[in-house]
Amino acid sequence: MKVYQQYINGEFRDAESKEQFEVLNPFTEKVIAMAPKGGARDAALALEAASSAQKSWAAKSCIERAGYLKKMAEIIRANRDMLAQTLAEEQAKILPLAQVEIDATAEYFDYYAGWARKYEGEVIQSDNPKENILLYRQPIGVVVGVCPWNFPFFVMARKVAPSLLTGCTIVLKPSSETPNTTFEFAKLISSIGLPKGVLNFVSGGGSTLGDALVRSPQVGLVTLTGSVETGQRIISASAENITKTSLELGGKAPVIICADCDMDMAVKAVVDSRIIFSGQVCNCAERVYVEAEVYDEFMGKLTKAMSDVTYGDPFADPAPCMSSQINKSQLIKIEEMVAKAKAQGAEVVVGGARGDDQPTGFFYKPTLLANCTQDMEIIRNEIFGPVLPVVKVANFDEALDLSNDCEFGLTSSVFTTNITKMMRAINELKFGETYVNRSHFEAIQGFHAGWRKSGIGGADGKHGLFEYLQTHVAYIQY
Ligand code: NAP
Q1: Model-level pTM greater than 0.85?
Q2: Residue 250: CB within 6 Å of ligand 1?
Q3: How far apart are CA 45 and CA 8, in angstroms?
Q4: Are 65 and 185 in the same domain?
Q5: 328 CA distance to ligand 1 centroid (A)?
Q6: The CATH number of the domain where 235 resides is what?
Q7: Interval 384-418: pLDDT, tens
Q8: What is the residue with the minimal CA distance to atom 12 of ligand 1?
């Protein structure tokens, strides 16, 4: 069994309390590692290290800082197998998907390294003669990054890469469910010559260590990827110091199936986007609105496709389509939501029960629910599991209205060959992202940002980089 340590100020150390917590393999339900149970004193040590290192880190040229990101990308690629193995083991992600995440993480470091010579300030026209107005973009300072369990390695890079490139330093806390891959990365990067304190990894409870990090006046930006509830707690904790927050929270992505769509392509995209990582992805298809005239045809094809979804050991070769849920409480939450939907009139067409045929793990069967209605909890709240609820709608206008009738606003999609419907969906759907005729997955050069309760600010691309920079305007007369 592995025993991890925190990485603070360039050194590996136990929690100040010496306490540890267990990390489970969700598929085997066995303890696979012990991680430090950091608390307020660990938060203070890591923040002090990040604060002390920030000035000299920001003084380095951007291209020099980018060099460290490139080294991180190289070291990830060189250790791809070990990292993918660790990731698949700590969260029951099927191995091929874990490999995709490791590759995407290396790409992410390379992508942001490429911004070193690209981001710029501005020269603004002055009203006065002999005056220049210059707008600088400067690092926001110390960043606190708080990560979820579903893409622990990729989301780590989403916070570390833009921080380090812009001259910020960072203290990053992985989820208590999945600290292993992050700590393996800490071991790897400890030999690349990064100045002490620039990058710190701590672990421990969200309400203890996490809260202490977020409340500190030393912090310039808190970036969380997680649930709405944690986002709300972080907003109130950061209110005291008016600390900037960037929040990527839950989703409830609608899918609109128009009568004129390429039906086979739509069915494949919807199923892929629902079952990826056992339905535990924020941008997954979470509810489907189908135009009445093709409802029966679509449901027939969807039933076949959902029935064909396999599940099992994440390391099996060939790999199943999906594996276990992350833990028992997620499994119970999904089970309760389906039970409630059934009681409200939903019909279980496929699945609708635990995957008890597996020897261990927290399996929920790929599930398709018909006859769903807008008032059901399963249509209004995030499921975060392999359950696809479907609503029949009279027409496209109703589909748009019901899609927008939602507290969340992360991603959405439409399947149509009609250009007017495409353009109406793009203009009328009130979501941070709309995918047209493809499954739900964003690009690193885009901007992943939620509307309403799905978040504040966002990640990726140029706009994601700007989250880590603050403006400074100089008025110069000569
Ligand atoms: P979570 O329970 O909110 O936890 C996220 C992180 O916040 C964990 O590291 C957690 O620590 C920490 N935390 C909890 N309470 C805290 C507090 N009071 N102060 C500071 N940190 C605190 O979310 P999750 O269950 O890991 O992730 C699933 C959720 O994330 C879903 O809702 C999903 O939609 C969302 N998500 C969104 C995106 C996006 O891009 N919008 C991407 C991925 C996931 P502990 O683990 O120690 O509790």
Answers
A1: yes
A2: yes
A3: 7
A4: yes
A5: 17
A6: 3.40.605.10
A7: 999 999 999 999 999 999 999 999 999 999 999 99
A8: 206
